[in-house]
Amino acid sequence: MTVVHDIAHADLRAVPGVLDRQAMHQALESIAQAARASGRSLALLTLDIDHFKDYQDEHGPAQAEQVLTQLAMLLQQLQPSTASLAYLGADEFVLILPDTGLAAAAELAERLRDRIAAALAQLGGLRPLTATIGVAASPPNQEWQATTLLTLADARMTFAKRRLLPHHNLVWAGTLPSDWYLRLEVPAGIWPCL
To answer: How far is CA 50 from CA 92, 121, 126, 130, 160, in A?
Structure first.
């Protein structure tokens, strides 16, 4: 996962149902195992708040934690009933979406991106807070691992923030340069399916 430095880790225990990193990995493995056994798809969204470090520097850690709490509650309201939301720390969240293919996950990600931008626009700051979201889904009729999906969703989010203009407020479910897949240890035969 992307490592973000100098951003406080929020205490989101006040938001029931939000998984921490360890619980997310356990839930993801269990949900992935069930998806593989049933032949159903599994999608993941990784979400990172754009300009969050600047916001925290300007408004302080307490206000930044309130933003993270507000975002967690908004994501819970908007997520499908079968989804699981996890907070990984800093300004990064993961949404686990059982029975969801890539197109449906990308569509949900666009709706979330739009709603997040609208909800956080009122907060002010040097630059508006938005979200960039990476999307990945299990390939049909092929072997796959939960960690590969998580890594791919995170890589797509990172790619959007670093390589696509305007470097914020984006959803990316598309291809990556081939050298990115090699670093992710994703077998070449399933690149087009992810």
So the answer is: 10, 12, 12, 5, 11
